[in-house]
């Protein structure tokens, strides 16, 4: 079993990621949360937690960790500090302990933030964080979903390095894709865009790996 640090574990998508990892036969989740008050919800299910604020020192959070998923977000409030610099800090910490893989939850449009009509600052932060990860020499996977919905997941998506269209996808299916991307045989040093679709997640990732 590999220990997987989930940054942003207390978020809507983060909680889904932690739950999937907790059911996995391959991975053990370690939920990274910002406040002590957020630990109990995970610990009642015997899920390990670690306190870490992306605006502070997080070097301790990667102790005994094998892989990481960055699913944190500032909700548009501190995009530079959290979405960009926080991600970069976790990349640096991951490099220091030679993490086996780093999976980044990014966003569709992060490859061309200057073309965005809204969310420009957010997409710019995500773009910079993605570039930083790519240049880090860590083994990585960058997943860029369309608009997130709270619909029930289907376990099926549409995926490509560039889809050339916009659309939406459920948080359930995004969480599943991120967990699948942790595997060594999925998305090695690759960036993909995902939307709701008709292809099973595992198959969809194979087609772009």
UniProtKB/TrEMBL annotation:
Among Pfam families, the record links this protein to: NAD_binding_10
Note the superkingdom of the native organism. Bacteria
Q: Where is the NAD(P)-binding domain?
A: 8-184
| Xref: PANTHER family | FLAVIN REDUCTASE-RELATED, UPF0659 PROTEIN YMR090W
- From the Swiss-Prot or TrEMBL record, give the protein name: NAD dependent epimerase/dehydratase family protein
């Amino acid at each position: 079993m590999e220990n997987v640090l989930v940054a942003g574990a207390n978020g809507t998508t983060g909680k889904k990621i932690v739950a999937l990892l907790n059911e996995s036969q391959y991975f053990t989740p370690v939920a990274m949360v910002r406040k002590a008050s957020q630990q109990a919800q995970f610990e009642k299910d015997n899920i390990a937690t670690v306190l870490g604020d992306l605006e502070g020192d997080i070097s301790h959070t990667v102790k005994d960790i094998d892989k990481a998923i960055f699913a944190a977000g500032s909700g548009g409030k501190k995009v530079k500090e959290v979405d960009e610099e926080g991600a970069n800090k976790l990349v640096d910490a991951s490099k220091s302990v030679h993490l086996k893989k780093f999976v980044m939850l990014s966003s569709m449009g992060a490859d061309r933030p200057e073309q965005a009509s809204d969310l420009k600052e957010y997409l710019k932060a995500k773009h910079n964080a993605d570039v930083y990860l790519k240049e880090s020499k860590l083994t990585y996977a960058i997943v860029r979903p369309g608009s997130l919905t709270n619909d029930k997941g289907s376990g099926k998506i549409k995926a490509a390095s560039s889809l050339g269209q916009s659309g939406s996808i459920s948080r359930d299916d995004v969480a599943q894709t991120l967990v699948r991307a942790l595997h060594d045989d999925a998305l090695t040093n690759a960036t993909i865009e995902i939307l709701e679709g008709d292809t099973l997640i595992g198959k969809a990732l194979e087609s772009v790996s």
